[in-house]
Amino acid sequence: MIADVHVATWREAYAHLLSLTSSRRNQLYAIYVFAAHYGTGVGQALFDQTLGGGAAMLWVAKENPRATAFYRRNGFRLDGVEQIDPYTPIITDARMVR
Fold this sequence. Notes:
3 helices
C-alpha cells in the first residue's frame, strides 16, 4: 500500500529526530469532532478504529483539557516533551504516550 510505504520511509528519514522506542511506532495525527457531537461516542469510535490499543504517541494542544482528558481515558500520559506548533506559534503541543 502507498500509505505503508509513506509511513515506513518517513520513519526511516526522521528516526534520528525522534526520541521514541520501536514500541511506539504508531502515531495518531488528529481526531476532530464537531462540538454538537461531544459525548456521543463518535470520537471514541474514530479513535478505536484508527489506533485501538497498544503502544503509540500523539501530540495534543497543551491548553486543550478536553482532548487531554480523552487521551488519558485511553491510556495515554504526558511525557514532559513539548514543542511549539510551527503553523500556529501561539499553541504549545505536548506529547502523550502509552
